[in-house]
Every structure is written in C-alpha cells, then in structure tokens.
C-alpha cells in the first residue's frame, strides 16, 4: 500500500513531465502571491506519502503545515465523510441543528484543558477565524478593547490576524491595520540577551508584558493575552512553563483572559491532545483555546472553546458563520478523535519526537551550521546559523537544504523570524522505516549544502 512505501524519485528531473504540465497551468491561472517552491504535484496520498502523476513518491514532513497529524486519506476518515455525504453535506447551524456539530462540541468541550467546570464550543473554518473569534469572545466577556500578542507570533491573514501576526511581510501593501493590538517580546531563549542565563531570562521577558501596561495601554483596558504554546511560524519555540505561570498570574491580577492559540501545536503534535495540557498540569491553564489544522484531518474546520460564562457573554449574532461546523467537517472531526485514541497517536508523537530529538542533537554536535534544536513532542525545529559563535541566521542554507531534500523525495518547510528554521510536521502515522529514510535524506542534505 502507498502508506507503507518509501520516498522514491523515478523521473530524471523534478517536476516530471506530467507534473510540470500541471505546474505550468497553475502559473497561468493562480496568483503568484500564492507561492510554491516545491516540484511536487499531488496525484494521490496515504499516510505520510504523496505520489505525483509521474509516479514519484515524496515523504511528506510538512503535512499540509500541521493539518495531517492522522495522515493523508486515513481510511476511517474517508469512510466517515462518505457516510455523512450520503445523508447531507451541510445545514447552517443557525437554521438547522445537526447532531455532528453537537457531538463534536460535547467531546471537545470535555477534553480541552481550559479553566472552568463546563465548556462550550463554536466552530469556524480556519485557524485565522478561530483566533479572530477568540478575540471577539474575550472582548465581549471583559468589556475591554485591547489585546496583547507576542513577537514572533503568527495568527493568520485576515485583517485582524494580520495585525496580530508579528512578521509584517504577511501584511505587505495592506495599508493601515486595526489598532488596540500591543506586542510583548516572546521568550526566544536561544536569542536571549548575551550573558543572560535561561533562568534569568524569564523575569526579563515577563517584564515585557508589564511594560505594555506602562508604555502602551493600562492593564484595565486589556481583554486578553494571546500566546502560542509553541510558536509555529515564529520558529518552533516553546513558551517556557515558568513564563506562562507568571503571565497567568498577571492576567488573574488584572482581569485579563489568557488565550492559547493551538492552531498548529494542537491535536497531538505536542504529545498531548493540546499543548496547553502542560500548562494546566503546572496550574496555569488558559481561559480560551483556539484550534484548527489537524482537527478534521484536512477538511476545513476550526474551533474556539471556553467555559460557559465566557462563551455565553457574547451578544447574539456577533459570532457564527455560514460554513462553521459543516456536517462533513464535523464527521471527520469526530473520527479524528477516535483515530488519535485508538492508534495511540499521542504516545506515537512522543516516540517520534524522542527519536528526532536524539538524531537532531547529534547533528548539533556534528555540524557547525546547526545552532539550536528545540520543540515539544513531535513538533521540533532546527535553527540553522552561519556559525555557532555568531548565531547569524542562515536562511539561504535552509532554502538549499529544503530544495536538495525535495529532489531526493523529502518535503520539509522553513519557519522562523529569520526564515532559518526547518520545522518537523510529519504525520504521526508515519512508519519507522519512513522516519529513518527521512532522517537520512535530511542529514545528507545538511552535509551536502553546508560544505
């Protein structure tokens, strides 16, 4: 079966002739701004393997950018969506109640690590929509108009989430962005001030939050602090637990909600269903969680979850939307939770993560260009630099490694403020043989491109 195959390039060049024709048609019909650097056209896919129209097989370590934790075309999801499609595709939830929405809301509400005795759930379509609605809900509950976000953050490409997102390359040419959004420096410990210990860095970064109250907006005007438990686009940087504990205390003292953006790090990627379960274990659970990406295995769906009093504070009509909680998406979402449990994918995430961390750490000792290795569970990033001493980012090297690996059948993606991080987002259903093959191609690429 395709899901058990290894990467294999059989054409003399990439893309092959059939794939090249599709890519040519893409260039003629699709805006250049929706850019793609990969010589890969997907014809069919299973598990962690993509096959193109020419018969080339690629090992997918991008996973739709974190969407495919349960893999491509999982048979249980295919069956669930097919069965739902035979009944009905859609019924707007403001008009008709469908059982799939209710069941998925019940299951998610019972499993999220947010504060409260009982939770309610709203569904939307994308991570950006989830983040935007989380902010709307926080504003409704607190009656406040401002929020704090982080350096290195990525929250989406809608007007509000472009403003929330740190890297303004995502907002180029978009003019004035919404106000009331203030930014604090995220604890990027690898690039902490020179001479500062990791322990000493925590109060340094915590003060960046209280500086916002002094320099930008009073604490009494802040509705929420929005944090990714592991920054995705920012470079796979986990938020230190001690830092989150301190932020939780500041929020509690000032009536501010803590929002966890789990769009990329959620749904098993961290070794827990939600990365903020680690927060809860440390006594600093968030008030609101925004989730998306792997929530429905590739069918567009996202969710916002919070305790009843927060969700019920929103005036009628302020949240919702035509496609939110689509019946096909909810059918897939229900089955994703089953697959995660039945196939023990949380354990598998930790197992894969441990193997990668061991191998990546050896590369850190072996290669001058490997500056830092970090992450949580199976969400691990390598930061590449021109030298360990200078820590100068090496984005061109990263680009070369990614292109070289793709030519050998391994798809990877960059990340980071300086575009010098390669992220690991492989499907958790990947076989041990596929993991080993991918690691070998990856190291070959590093060795070749760093010469």
Give your account of this protein's structure.
There is one protein chain. The chain contains 14 helices and 17 strands. With 451 residues, it is of the alpha/beta class. The longest helix has 22 residues, at 345-366. The strands form four sheets. It has a seven-stranded mixed β-sheet, with helices on both faces. It has a four-stranded mixed β-sheet with strand order 1-2-3-15. Strand 8 (230-231) and strand 9 form a beta hairpin. It has helices at residues 17-29, 63-66, 75-85, 99-111, 127-142, 159-164, 198-215, 241-254, 276-281, 308-311, 327-342, 345-366, 395-407, 432-449, and strands spanning 44-46, 49-51, 57-60, 119-124, 146-150, 181-184, 222-227, 230-231, 237-238, 257-261, 288-291, 302-307, 370-376, 379-384, 410-411, 413-415, 421-424. It folds into two domains: 2-60 and 344-449, Aspartate Aminotransferase, domain 1 (Alpha-Beta Complex), CATH 3.90.1150; 79-342, Type I PLP-dependent aspartate aminotransferase-like (Major domain) (Aspartate Aminotransferase, domain 2, 3-Layer(aba) Sandwich), CATH 3.40.640. It comes from Treponema porcinum. Pfam families: Aminotran_3. Its cofactor is pyridoxal 5'-phosphate. Keywords: Aminotransferase, Pyridoxal phosphate, Transferase.
């Amino acid at each position: 079966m395709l899901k058990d195959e290894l990467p294999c390039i059989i054409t003399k060049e990439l893309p092959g002739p059939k794939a090249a024709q599709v890519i040519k048609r893409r260039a003629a019909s699709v805006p250049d701004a929706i850019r793609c650097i990969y010589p890969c056209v997907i014809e069919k896919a299973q598990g962690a393997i993509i096959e193109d129209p020419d018969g080339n097989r690629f090992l997918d370590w991008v996973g739709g950018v974190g969407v495919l934790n349960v893999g491509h075309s999982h048979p249980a999801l295919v069956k669930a969506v097919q069965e739902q499609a035979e009944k009905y595709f859609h019924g707007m939830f403001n008009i008709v109640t469908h059982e799939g929405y209710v069941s998925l809301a019940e299951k998610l509400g019972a499993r999220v690590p947010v504060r409260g005795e009982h939770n309610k759930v709203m569904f939307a379509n994308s991570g950006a929509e989830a983040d935007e609605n989380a902010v709307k809900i926080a504003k409704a509950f607190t009656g406040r108009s401002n929020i704090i976000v982080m350096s290195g953050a990525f929250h989406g490409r809608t007007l509000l989430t472009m403003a929330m997102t740190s890297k303004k390359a995502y907002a180029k040419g978009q003019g004035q962005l919404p106000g009331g959004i203030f930014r604090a420096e995220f604890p990027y410990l690898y690039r902490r001030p020179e001479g500062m210990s990791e322990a000493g860095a925590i109060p340094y970064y915590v003060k960046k939050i209280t500086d916002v109250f002094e320099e930008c907006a009073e604490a009494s005007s802040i509705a929420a602090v929005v944090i990714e438990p592991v920054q995705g686009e920012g470079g796979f940087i986990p938020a230190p637990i001690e830092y989150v504990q301190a932020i939780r205390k500041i929020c509690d003292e000032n009536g501010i909600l803590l929002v966890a953006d789990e769009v990329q790090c959620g749904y098993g990627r961290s070794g827990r269903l939600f990365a903020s379960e680690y927060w809860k274990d440390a006594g600093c659970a968030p008030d609101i969680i925004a989730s998306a990406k792997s929530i429905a295995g590739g069918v567009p769906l996202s969710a916002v979850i919070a305790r009843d009093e927060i969700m019920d504070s929103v005036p009628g009509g302020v949240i919702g939307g035509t496609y939110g909680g689509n019946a096909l998406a909810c059918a897939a979402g229900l089955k994703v939770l089953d697959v995660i449990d039945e196939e023990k994918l949380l354990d598998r995430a930790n197992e894969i993560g441990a193997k990668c961390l061991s191998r990546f750490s050896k590369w850190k000792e072996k290669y001058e260009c490997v500056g830092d290795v970090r992450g949580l569970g199976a969400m691990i990033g390598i930061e590449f630099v021109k030298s360990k001493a200078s820590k100068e980012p090496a984005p061109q090297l990263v680009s070369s490694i990614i292109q070289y690996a793709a030519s050998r059948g391994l798809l990877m993606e960059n990340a980071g403020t300086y575009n010098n991080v390669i992220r690991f987002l492989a499907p958790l259903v990947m076989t041990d043989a596929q993991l080993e093959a991918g690691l070998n191609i990856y190291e070959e690429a590093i060795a070749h491109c760093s010469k």
